[in-house]
Amino acid sequence: MPDRATGEVDITAMETSLVGKLQFIVRKDLKVKYPRAETPTHYISMGFDDDLSEAARLAVREMIAFLVNEKHMSRDDAYMLTSVAGDVDITELVDGNKGVHVMMPKAIFK
Fold it and tell me: Which residues are CB-contacts of 101 (< 8 A; sequence separation ≥ 6)?
């Protein structure tokens, strides 16, 4: 699977099968507003809203919150890191739904 996800932009999406191993962990101790994901190479935050700009703001804020809570960074440092190292991509633009995700490379924490 590629590192980068691509967004669906119209109703006719290309569906494909996927073979892989997925692990879902329910964290009852974690209070998040939007889903988060993790790949072998990236931490991923997400934001969804009717307005694409607001979805982007939410995804960025979620990444900052992740860095503050999980990587013990100050809010200012987390904001600066997200600004220079976060990859902001559109997740979805179909049927009025708009989604954005921020991918943070794990390699910068080693």
Answer: 5, 37, 44, 45, 46, 47, 59, 88, 89, 91
